[in-house]
Amino acid sequence: MSRWLKSNRAFLAFLLCFGFFRLAIADWNPIPSGSMRPTLLEGDVVLVNRLAYDFKLPLSDISVAHIANPKHGDVVVFTSPKDGMRLIKRLVGVPGDVIEMQRDVLFINGSPAQYTLPEVVAEPTAHDATTPGIRVTEQIAEQQRTVQFLPHAVAMRDFGPVTVPPDHYFFLGDNRDNSADSRYIGFVPRDHLIGRAHHILVSANIKGNWLPRIERIGERIQ
Fold it and tell me: CB neighbours of 183 closer than 8 A, spacing ≥ 6?
């Protein structure tokens, strides 16, 4: 055994460094569902900066140092406070914000979002079917992104108002009528945040022909 360890020490050192890098510095996260469509698609694999907000001890939620505060509009990977699953959603509420939704319109601190450039799309559903969707540009809290609504889906379109408590955050999926987000799982504690997703690493059409989506590789997440 000692001879094997000695002859493979460079490889073992690489594995240790790689493991530390992935657990503490950077990670990747596959997208299994459509809750962030159209920003992220099923089959995307995103790069996650684990040092965006906190430096944590590997394999733990223990923060050694705060690096920066999460900001409105960040796309964040976190652990669900409801069932422990890893989720990825958009941050819309920071501590102290008052969040409300009225008929799918998002309000932050009493100010409603503005919706422009509507586009009608056919959104895929189960069994190769589609449902009508409406994609719009949402502008609020000095942020702009594309979100979509599914008029025929059963969803929570009215919510709040609620105040985000200290050290907690409120998240929504960009696919507003098909997302198990903070409307359902509640506020997310800061120590549940894993990191900020910033680019698409690779992508494949897992809902269709499984071919790579070359045009999405390296795309910045906005």
Answer: 101, 156, 159, 172
Among 6, 7, 33, 35, the one annotated catalytic: 35
174 in Cβ contact with 37 (< 8 Å): yes
Distances in Å between the Cα of 148 and the Cα atoms of 39, 133, 216 are 10, 7, 19
Residue of 80, 89, 179, 182 marked active site: 89
* Token pair of 4 as six digits: 């094997």
Catalytic-residue membership of 35: yes
> Does residue 38 register a pLDDT over 90?
yes
Q: What is the mean pLDDT of residues 27-39?
A: 90
In the annotation, is 89 catalytic?
yes
Tell me the one-letter amino acid at 38: P
Closest Cα partner for 195 from 20, 49, 29, 23? 49
Q: Quick one: tokens of 106?
A: 């998002």
Whether 11 has a pLDDT exceeding 70, the answer reads no
